[in-house]
Amino acid sequence: MTFLRRPPVWAALLLSAGLFTVAVLGLGLARAAFYDSPDQPAADRIVVAEPPGPVEQGVCGTVPVQAPRELRGMWLTTVYNIDWPSKPGLPEAQVKSEYLRWLDLAVAQRHNAIFVHVRPSGDAFWKSEFAPWSNWLTGKFDDTDPGWDPMQFMVDEAHQRNLEFHAWFNPYRGTQPAPSGTGTDLSKLVKDHPLLAHPEWRIAYPTGKTGRLYFDPGVPEARKFVEDAMLEAVEKYDVDGVHFDDFFYPYPEKGEDFPDDASYKKYGNGKSKADWRRDNVNTLVREMQQRIAELKPWVKYGISPFGIWRNGGEGSDTSGLESYSAIYADTRKWVREGWLDYIVPQLYWTIGFDKADYAKTLPWWTETVKGTGVQLWIGMADYRVGEKGDWSDPGQLDRQMAMNDKFGVQGQVHFSAKQLRQNRLGSVSRYVSKHYAGPALLPRMARLPATPPAAPQITGAQRAASGAVTLTTAAPGGGASWALYRTGESAATLVATGRAGTAVVDPKPPAGAATYCLSGLDRSGNEGPLSSPFTSAG
Predict the structure, then answer these.
(1) Average pLDDT over the chain, rounded to whole?
(2) Does residue 315 surpass a pLDDT of 90?
């Protein structure tokens, strides 16, 4: 799978020998729409995932409290400046302004998370000891310091809006093809680039103008280096999640194999090359889970893989490219071993598509995560809306999300931000009005530390000229965020959420008196007890 310079992201479906591949046109998330039998997870890792909302949490006065629980996010792609920044080398003020507009869009569409591409290809959107500054930010390949801290700004502003910040990394890509990237031209790399300092880590693939440099996944020292490079960001910044897409070994190029014979000869230990490559990817996935847990155990860890593990048999009822054999990503094993907190398969096909029917791939994934404690979120193909055929129907994503609800999926991530703003055929407005009509709490991550805060207290209320009601609160409270409920005839429903320390506001209260309850939540989505009911004046 290769990046080209412009969206739409996927190129054509190439049908050959019963397989198809989906090429990515321009994204940063490496959207791909294209057997070692995995051991069962240890008993202490088996956790029943909490179903999607509405979930009842106590009572407010005499009525039950209900809130939907669902991850809602979008991928913000930086590679080739697909989403952000709009151009390389922009002034700091413009870069910041553009980012805030993306956050405003997320808030307007009632998302609760954003996934930002901070290491697209061996570079960094923070001052790193392991990687040069990203040229998609600075407009240069010489490690020019922009003079400010983009990562701190991004995380802080997301948190101010109560959006989780998931730092999205490509582990092994070292460069992007020329001319926008440096390609395989070593003379264009900064003098202290790790792939110059360690040529034994370096692989160029494929040949020709689309070539790029990779860190060799088969070299243990290279793997440790890329882990350290990513964990540096986790250590330095208050990120909520570590996120990969499906770029480990590259997607196959016709007539070429990834040239890793040297590392295979040195480290293969008698395994077939395919099994050895899968083991290399498995090791990275497992070690990152272990190291994140040691460093910051509350940080979530997830991967967004190609939507097909294997075809037929124990795999899905599909006939497409397999992540297991084509890119050596044993995605089912990662889930069964409990190496992830969440998985976001890229199900970038329509309901009824013959090679990979959404209605058949989705149930396979829901069955795969069952009983593992790994949450299932779905990668949604907003970028495909408007294509010929079934994608010309503006209701396709709406129907897919209804199917997600039916099968107990705990969230969606949309590719990508630009398409959410474009709202092709009105498709985004349609699913937002039906599925994201009100706020949602994040799904409770039972695998991670639980520190639910004590009940807060509501001490007063003031109505603004706009009609919004601002509530004043007192200790104990605490936690990472708050949830505000307003009572109705039969239930108290969620009307607003916010980061701890921000004003508690009901943006659209009724004209008369209203009764509220407030709760706090920890970073893993565990909700503490509700406050006593408080009734505001009419």
Answers:
(1) 91
(2) yes
pLDDT at 538: 73
What are phi and psi for residue 79, nearest 5 degrees?
-60, 135
- Residue 73 phi/psi, 5-degree rounding, is -145, 170
The whole-angstrom separation of Cα 133 and Cα 127 is 7
CA–CA–CA angle 529, 522, 119 (5° rounding): 160
* pLDDT at residue 23, as a whole number: 33
| pLDDT tens-digit series, residues 108-135 | 999 999 999 999 999 999 999 999 999 9
* Helix/strand/coil percent split, the chain, to 5: 30, 25, 50
The three-state secondary structure class of 377 is coil
Contact indicator for 350, 362 with CB cutoff of 8 Å: no
Rounded distance between C-alpha atoms, residue 32 and residue 91, angstroms: 32
Residue given tokens 């004209």 in the structure block: 511
Q: Three-state SS for 432?
A: helix
Token reading at 274: 């395919």
* Among candidate residues 428, 318, 297, 393, the one with its CA nearest the CA of residue 363: 318
Rounded CA-CA distance 362/404 in Å is 8
Q: Which two tokens stand for residue 375?
A: 């949450």
Q: How, if at all, do strands 55-60 and 63-67 pair? A: antiparallel
- pTM above the 0.85 mark? yes
Q: For 180-308, where are the E strands, in sequence order? A: 202-205, 212-215, 241-244, 300-303
How far the first Cα of the chain sits from its last, in Å, is 59
With contact defined as beta carbons under 8 Å apart, do 90 and 183 qualify? no
Q: With b meaning 16 or more CB within 10 Å and e meaning fewer, what string describes 23-37?
A: bbbbbbbbbbbbeee
Mean pLDDT of 510-528: 96
Nearest in space to 365 (alpha carbons), one of 351, 354, 353, 379: 379
Assess whether the previous peptide bond of 533 is cis (omega < 30° from 0).
no
d(CA 144, CA 447): 40
Backbone φ and ψ of 138, nearest 5°: -85, -20
Angstrom distance (rounded) from CA 84 to CA 104:
14
Q: Would you call 482 exposed, middle or buried from its count of C-beta atoms within 10 A (0-12, 13-18, 19+)?
A: buried
Cis ω before 272 (30° cut-off from 0): no
179: preceding bond cis by omega (within 30 degrees): yes
Parallel, antiparallel or unpaired: strands 534-536 and 514-521: antiparallel
* Cα–Cα distance list, 165 to 76, 112, 157, 209, 526 (Å): 11, 9, 9, 35, 18
| Chain mean position to CA 99 | 17
Q: Is the peptide bond between 532 and the residue preceding it cis, with omega within 30 degrees of 0?
A: no
